TrEMBL record:
Record's signal peptide: 1-23
Name by which UniProt lists this protein: Peptidase MA-like domain-containing protein
Location of region: Disordered: 110-139
Keywords, ordered alphabetically: Signal
Length: 349
C-alpha cells in the first residue's frame, strides 16, 4: 500500500517536472542563457513564446516600445513582451557548436534563396520575417512562431519532443557573430545545439514554403543532436533533415531537386553518395549534394518506411555505416548505392 502511494506521489512529481509548464520554463531559461551570451545583440529584445518554441528577436530601430500580438498572445501560455536588458558577464559557455547550413546560393536555391533558378516561388511582398517594423514585424514574428511550432511538431513526431529557441538577430553581422566559428555567409539559417540562428536578410527572401522547409530542416538537426554528432555520415545528417523538411511541403521532387534533375536528364547520374567535402561552402555541386542526400533518405522512407529511416539514422551514429545499413535495411553500401542510383534515375529523368 505504502509503495503504491509512494509511486503515485513520484509519478505526480515526475509529471509536474516534465509536463508542459516545466518544459516551457526550461525553454524560457535557455532563451535567457542564450541572450546573456550576447547582451549587445539582445538587450531590449522581443520574446515570443510559441507552444513548442521560443522566438527571441533583436530590437530594431523604429519598433514601438510595446508590441501586441493578438493572435498569439490570445493563446494560453503565449506572451509577447520586451525582455529586461540581459545582464552582461554571465555568459554560459555552451551552445556554440553549429551544423551547416542552408545556403542561399547552393543547396538552398531550392528554398527560394537569392540564387537564380529558385524552384520555390518567392515570398509575397512585405512578409519578410525580420524586415518590417511595428505591426508588420509583430505579424512576422507571430508567423515565425507558428511555423517553428509546426516544424517542431513534425520533427518531434519522428525523433521525440524538441523545443528550440529561434534567434532572430537584426542584421547579417549579428547572425555571423551568433554562428561563429561557423560561417553564415549565404545562409538562411543555421542550427546550433538547441537553437536555430536565422540570417534575417536571407530568411526574408524565402517563400512561405521555403521558410517551413528551412525551419523544419534546422529543427530536425536539433532533435537529432546533429551539432554534437561528428560520426554520422554527412549525407545522412543532411538528407535526413531535408527528408523531414520537405516531407509535408508538397513541393514536387523534380522542383526540389532541380539542379540534380538537370544533370540526370543530361545523362549524368551520380556514381557515389556525396562525401563531406561536397557539403562544404563553395563546393561546385553543393545543391546537388543536398539533393542526392535528400533522395537517398527519401528512398529509404519509401522503400522501407519512416521507422527504418529513423533506425538507420540512429544506428549510423556509431560511425559504422556498413553495419547500420546491414542491421536496419539488410543491405550493404554497394547494394544501397545501386538502389539509390536507380531511384534517382527513376524520379528525375
Ligand atoms: Zn543541414
Amino acid at each position: 500500500m505504502r509503495v503504491v502511494w509512494l509511486w503515485a506521489v513520484l509519478a505526480g512529481l515526475l509529471a509536474a517536472l516534465t509536463g508542459p509548464s516545466a518544459a516551457a520554463d526550461s525553454l524560457a531559461r535557455r532563451g535567457r542563457e542564450l541572450m546573456r551570451e550576447h547582451p549587445e545583440i539582445w538587450t531590449g529584445a522581443v520574446i515570443l513564446r510559441g507552444e513548442r518554441s521560443l522566438i527571441v528577436a533583436a530590437r530594431r530601430p523604429g519598433l514601438p516600445a510595446r508590441i501586441t500580438l493578438p493572435d498569439v498572445a490570445a493563446r494560453p501560455g503565449a506572451e509577447a513582451r520586451f525582455a529586461r536588458p540581459a545582464a552582461a558577464g554571465e555568459a554560459s559557455g555552451d551552445g556554440t557548436a553549429v551544423v551547416d547550413d542552408v545556403s542561399g546560393t547552393g543547396g538552398a536555391a531550392a528554398f527560394g534563396g537569392s540564387g537564380g533558378g529558385s524552384p520555390v516561388p518567392a515570398g509575397s511582398a512585405g512578409s519578410g520575417v525580420p524586415g518590417g517594423e511595428g505591426d508588420s514585424r509583430s505579424r512576422d514574428l507571430a508567423d515565425l512562431a507558428r511555423r517553428a511550432d509546426r516544424a517542431s511538431l513534425v520533427a518531434g513526431r519522428l525523433l521525440g519532443p524538441v523545443r528550440p529557441v529561434i534567434l532572430v538577430p537584426a542584421t547579417t553581422e549579428q547572425a555571423a557573430t551568433l554562428s561563429a566559428p561557423a560561417s553564415v555567409t549565404g545562409l538562411a539559417a543555421v542550427a546550433a545545439v538547441d537553437s536555430v540562428i536565422v540570417e534575417p536578410a536571407a530568411f526574408a527572401r524565402l517563400s512561405a514554403a521555403g521558410r517551413d522547409v528551412v525551419l523544419t530542416h534546422e529543427i530536425t538537426h536539433i532533435a537529432a543532436g546533429a551539432a554534437l554528432d561528428g560520426r554520422t555520415p554527412k549525407w545522412l545528417v543532411e538528407g535526413f533533415a531535408d527528408y523531414v523538411g520537405y516531407r509535408d511541403s508538397g513541393i514536387p521532387v523534380a522542383r526540389a531537386a532541380a539542379e540534380l534533375a538537370e544533370e540526370v536528364r543530361a545523362g549524368r547520374l551520380p556514381r557515389e553518395l556525396p562525401g563531406p567535402g561536397d557539403f562544404a561552402a563553395g563546393s561546385p555541386r553543393l545543391a546537388q549534394a543536398y539533393e542526392e542526400a535528400w533522395l537517398a533518405c527519401r528512398y529509404v522512407a519509401e522503400r522501407y518506411g519512416e521507422r527504418a529511416l529513423v533506425a538507420l539514422y540512429r544506428a549510423a551514429r556509431g560511425g559504422d555505416l556498413s553495419a547500420a545499413l546491414s542491421r536496419t535495411l539488410g543491405t550493404g553500401p554497394a547494394g544501397f548505392t545501386a538502389a539509390w542510383r536507380a531511384y534517382v534515375q527513376d524520379r528525375l529523368r
